[in-house]
Amino acid sequence: MALNEALLLEFDREMANTRKILERVPDDKLGWKPHEKSMTVRQLALHLALFPNWATETFEKESIDIAPPGAAPYQPPVVNSRKEILDIFDRDLPKARAALAKASDADLSKMWTLLREGKTIFSLPRTGVLRGMVMNHMIHHRAQLGVYLRLNNLPLPATYGPSADEGIF
What we know:
Blueprint: H1 3-22, H2 41-49, H3 51-60, E1 63-65, H4 82-102, H5 105-109, E2 111-116, E3 119-125, H6 126-151
Parallel strand pairs: 1-2
Antiparallel strand pairs: 2-3
């Protein structure tokens, strides 16, 4: 089995689980955060919605500088509703999946670098970026969003099995 075929199984499952939790984000809680140092629901949900784009850029580029020297740093889009967050996720997901589906083992082995102000934050093979910095990072923030929803007494979707809100076997 080619690397991309193996990764697609995980990719599809994790993206579907991410969409399920983004569907639960309430518009009236977008500004809520559990602590002054925490992201708001809006920031966290948008961060999750942007992971498919990061996956696509991992295949289309050899590096990204999030604050290039002499240029403005990256600024995420402004969103004001769950629908806008889901629209971003849904727009970018097919492109990310298509990029992974056509990636060869050689493509997946190529190094990719994240920079800030021209300085390397990390360099990894694309497989490492996809698994560690896209999917695992997304799973981490998805769990955070789950806690945010729980703290607001909102139901959680099933992900790796039934949730307490959707019953058990």
